[in-house]
Structures are given as C-alpha cells and as structure tokens.
Design brief:
The chain is mostly helical and 201 residues long. It has a domain at 33-136 and 158-173. It contains eight helices and no strands. Helix 4 (96-103) crosses helix 5 (111-125). The longest helix has 22 residues, at 2-23. The N and C termini lie far apart (59 Å).
Length: 201
C-alpha cells in the first residue's frame, strides 16, 4: 500500500515536472495555472476572443486554436503536434493527449485563451474528441506523401504549402493545393521527378 502511494505521488510529480519543462515554465503558478514564457524574438500574438473571430480568414473551428501563439509566440514546431508527418502520407490531427500534455497545467494568459482552453478540458473530461474542420483537401486521384516532402525539403517544408502558419491566428488555405501547375512548378524549381506516376498512381 505504501509503495503504491509512493509510486502514484512520484508519478504525479514527474508528470508535472515534465509538463513544466516542455512548456518552458519557470515562474510560480497562479490560480489560473501557469502560462509559458514567449520564445525570444518571437512575434507577439495579439489578443482576440473566439466571438471576434468572424473577421479572420479560414473556417471557424469549434475551439479557436491560435497557431500564432503555439507555433509563433512559443515556437512549437509543426512536427510536435503533427507528429506523424515525418513517416506517414497524412500529417494527422494531434490527439487530445498531445494537447492535454501541456493544458493540464497551462490554463492561458488571458480570459479569451482561458475560455478556449476550458472547452478543450471539457471535451477531454467528457471523452469527446474535438471535431476540427479540415482546411486542406487534395483531390482523391492525387497522392501527396507528406513524409517524402518533409524528408526532401526539411523542417520548413510545411510553410511551402501551408504558408506562414506561425503568424495565423486561424489557419486558412494559402495555396490551392489542387492546382497541378503550382505543384509542377515546385517540382521544376527543385529539379525533382515530375512524371505523372509520381502523384497519380
């Protein structure tokens, strides 16, 4: 019994420390929970409430997920959340476990962020996955293996197609990913295979 209690307490402490290290948090917690410090030289993200998101480009999401805060201000790499992109055709939607790895501790720096994070926590507690609205669709007759592009173009591959997501409060489709000429021009610039069977197989 004593050993079980020690393991539970030790596990909770280890999880808290790991999350704090991952978030970069070094200050004291508040009742709202800590918020991670911004990365040096990161572009500041402006305050916006979900109700004010109607003027933003892109489809409205069930939770206003701020890419400009996560990828911009805190400089979290795309592959941290979209972890399957390096070895799969699909980049994948991050699991709620990935989100909650930080947001069990981080509650948001202002009331608008706290409101959106509470939606995530409510979905997590209800065991209901968030139904995100997909933004990029590739035609069914086209194969776009993400892992090959990330391997060939490196860590900045994402921005080539998706634009500067680190500055987007809400993601929108920057490039028409179904425009074959756009894809072919990219292949021509990089002197890579442009045979029909590269994408249509």
């Amino acid at each position: 019994m004593m050993r079980k209690s020690a393991l539970l307490v030790g596990g909770a402490v280890a999880s808290g420390l790991a999350a704090a290290v991952l978030s970069g948090f070094t200050g004291a917690t508040t009742q709202q929970g800590p918020s991670a410090p911004a990365a040096p030289n990161a572009p500041p993200a402006y305050t916006i409430a979900a109700g004010d998101s109607a003027f933003l480009k892109g489809p409205k999401q069930p939770i206003l997920f701020r890419h400009d805060i996560h990828a911009g201000q805190y400089q979290i790499t795309c592959q941290y959340c979209h972890y399957s992109v390096g070895y799969s055709s699909e980049p994948g939607i991050p699991s709620m476990q990935t989100c909650m790895g930080c947001h069990l501790i981080i509650a948001g720096a202002d009331s608008s962020n706290q409101k959106e994070i509470s939606k995530l926590r409510d979905a997590w507690n209800a065991k209901q996955p968030v139904e995100w609205v997909r933004i990029h669709y590739v035609a069914r007759h086209v194969h776009f293996p993400h892992q090959r592009h990330v391997k060939g173009m490196g860590p900045n591959a994402c921005a080539t197609c998706h634009g500067d997501v680190a500055r987007m409060p809400q993601v929108w489709e920057v490039n028409d990913v179904n425009n074959m000429g756009w894809c072919i021009n990219c292949h021509l610039e990089r002197k890579v295979n442009r045979d029909c069977t590269a994408c249509h197989y």
